[in-house]
Write a structure and sequence with these properties.
The chain has 234 residues and is an alpha/beta fold. The chain has a single domain, classed as Alpha/Beta hydrolase fold, catalytic domain (Rossmann fold). 26% of the residues lie in helices and 22% in strands. The chain has six helices and ten strands; from the N terminus they run βββββαβαβαβαβαβα. Helix 2 packs across helix 3. It is globular and about 45 Å long. The two termini are 24 Å apart.
Length: 234
Amino acid sequence: MARRLVSGAGFEHVVFSRGDLRTTERIHVYLEGDGLPWRSRHRIASDPTPRNPLALRLMALDPSPSIYLGRPCYFGLAQADGCSPWLWTDARYGAEVVDSMVAALKALLPADGPPPLTLIGYSGGGVLAALMAPRLGGEVRVVTLAANLDIDAWADHHGYSRLSGSINPANEPPIGASIMQLHLMGARDREVPPATVARFMAVNPGAQRRLFSDSDHRCCWLDDWPALLLLLDG
């Protein structure tokens, strides 16, 4: 994988990529979970970078041309201009974050006609995938794993304060029918119980949902990923 810094809309993003990004083949774009926004229930982390980046490990199993797009202020950029804990706590899915990630992704792709994209978001990365896809244009698919697609229902379930600076995909207009959606969920997921995404699914009746009886929030996506990739692109 090649590592680089890419400018978005007001923020820098750490990006890992593999393969020819000027290809006409479909590119897989991996979006990580929230990492470590809080060190404890009452203490904000000074660096939200994930200690065990599951989406990056998924990308390592993927032979397709791929991009791992980091969020603003992650991967050593927490002290960069414009960064503050607001952007990895209440506004972690806010317009500033979404717009900058869309801009950074577009900067990585050919301006004369981007190839088809599949946004693959794990946990909170799935929230960002659902918010980014309608803003990208072109041929886009959305695949999420264990994603909290109704962030209000997720916060209420855990007794957290709602994320006042974030966009809730369940409150947005339905994602266009031209964007294929596949949402993978674990029946044993206590962090994002499948019932908490019911309102999002009702707003997006064309979306596909697949429930894995033996999976929870982290297990067993890595084990299942090679077979799921064949399903996606087979």
